[in-house]
């Protein structure tokens, strides 16, 4: 751990790792190069069978902010993240995969946003990705007005109604106390556990947008969030609906429903939705229909036209957004 300069909140990072020993040095180097170091990095090794622990012992030298916690067996990403969540001592936490890479000012930007809005549920930034070998990086900005902006819970519901987007959770900082109160990342939601928690936190205490505080997600065919999900996805979608029906979640479920938040826009997802008619609204049905059609049509549209359509959508959405406060 290190002292956090000024009066800003303590920013913690939890890094789950399973057999990414060959990439950990790159991820930790990006953290070491931050314009503002995090308060701590808790690296949870999830029972790796490669040389991760040996590499980590060497990498920990000279990094007092790095703590390594080794699990005796592989339990999955959500369990590793929840283990780290229980260990951190900061006010805000970022879950950064061992093959992600932070932009140089990610921590500084996120801390400034959290200091400006200390009661926010999350601080989030734009989507960002890099190639499998890390040589190519790009930021995919959300269709939001430039500049920092806090959305109250009600404003965030309105934003999702007008300009729906999925969180890129590698660029989302959670309020630690709130996330613990929400139950952390639910293992039964598997690859959707992080976005479910991000939306729930935003609906509970609002969301603060900080452009540029990005973490680059390494896009590979076998990665946890982009790999093949198959029939298991149906069980995960049913678990999503079940989570919103739990006692005490009535207000949060109402926000999910009003904002038309659903993690899969496909005919398969629609069939699961039919098991919970109370979750379906005209807005969600229309969104599912549009995105199903676009998913089928997009490969037939040339790249230039797709880019122009995205530009038109961005200008339209920004024109409908609330003015910065």
Protein traits:
325 residues; alpha/beta; Spore Coat Polysaccharide Biosynthesis Protein SpsA, Chain A; 2 domains; eight-stranded mixed sheet
Q: Would you give an account of this structure?
A:
The chain has 325 residues and is of the alpha/beta class. The protein folds into 2 domains: 11-218, Spore Coat Polysaccharide Biosynthesis Protein SpsA, Chain A; 232-320, no CATH class. Helices cover 42% and strands 16% of the residues. The chain is built from 12 helices and 12 strands. The protein has helices spanning 21-32, 52-59, 77-87, 106-116, 153-162, 176-181, 193-205, 232-244, 250-259, 267-273, 282-297, 303-320; strands spanning 11-17, 40-46, 66-71, 92-95, 101-102, 122-124, 127-130, 137-140, 149-151, 172-175, 207-209, 215-218. It has an 8-stranded mixed sheet, with helices on both faces. A 4-stranded mixed sheet has the order 5-12-7-8. A hairpin with a 6-residue loop joins strand 7 and strand 8. Helix 1 (21-32) runs parallel beside helix 2 (52-59) and helix 5 (153-162) runs parallel beside helix 9. The radius of gyration is 19 Å and the shape is globular.
Secondary structure topology:
Elements: E1 11-17, H1 21-32, E2 40-46, H2 52-59, E3 66-71, H3 77-87, E4 92-95, E5 101-102, H4 106-116, E6 122-124, E7 127-130, E8 137-140, E9 149-151, H5 153-162, E10 172-175, H6 176-181, H7 193-205, E11 207-209, E12 215-218, H8 232-244, H9 250-259, H10 267-273, H11 282-297, H12 303-320
Parallel strand pairs: 1-2, 1-4, 2-3, 6-11, 7-12
Antiparallel strand pairs: 4-10, 5-12, 6-10, 7-8, 9-11
Helix pairs in contact: 1-2, 5-7, 5-9, 8-10
């Amino acid at each position: 751990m290190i002292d956090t300069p000024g009066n800003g909140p303590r920013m913690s990072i939890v890094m789950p790792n399973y057999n990414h020993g060959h990439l950990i040095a790159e991820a930790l180097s990006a953290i070491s190069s931050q314009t503002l170091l995090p308060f701590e990095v808790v690296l949870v090794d999830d029972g790796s069978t490669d040389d991760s622990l040996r590499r980590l012992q060497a990498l920990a030298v000279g990094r007092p902010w790095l703590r390594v916690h080794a699990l005796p067996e592989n339990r999955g990403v959500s369990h590793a993240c929840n283990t780290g969540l229980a260990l951190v001592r900061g006010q805000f936490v970022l879950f950064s995969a061992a093959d992600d890479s932070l932009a140089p000012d990610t921590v500084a930007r996120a801390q400034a946003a959290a200091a400006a809005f200390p009661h926010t549920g999350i601080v989030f930034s734009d989507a960002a990705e890099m190639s499998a070998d890390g040589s190519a990086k790009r930021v995919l900005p959300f269709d939001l007005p430039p500049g920092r902006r806090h959305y109250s819970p009600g404003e965030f519901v309105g934003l999702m109604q007008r300009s729906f987007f999925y969180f890129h959770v590698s660029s989302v900082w959670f309020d630690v106390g709130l996330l613990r109160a929400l139950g952390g990342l639910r293992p039964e939601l598997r690859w959707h556990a992080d976005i479910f928690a991000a939306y729930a936190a935003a609906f509970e205490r609002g969301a603060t947008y900080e452009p540029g505080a990005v973490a680059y997600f390494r896009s590979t065919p076998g990665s946890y969030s982009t790999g093949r999900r198959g029939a298991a996805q149906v069980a995960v979608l049913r678990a999503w609906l079940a989570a919103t029906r739990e006692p005490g979640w009535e207000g949060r479920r109402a926000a999910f429903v009003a904002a038309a938040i659903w993690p899969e826009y496909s005919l398969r997802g629609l069939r699961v939705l039919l098991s919970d008619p109370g979750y379906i609204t005209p807005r969600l049905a229309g969104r599912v229909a549009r995105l199903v059609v676009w998913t089928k049509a997009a490969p037939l549209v040339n790249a230039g036209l797709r880019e122009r359509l995205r530009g038109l959508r961005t200008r339209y959405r920004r024109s409908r957004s609330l003015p910065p406060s």
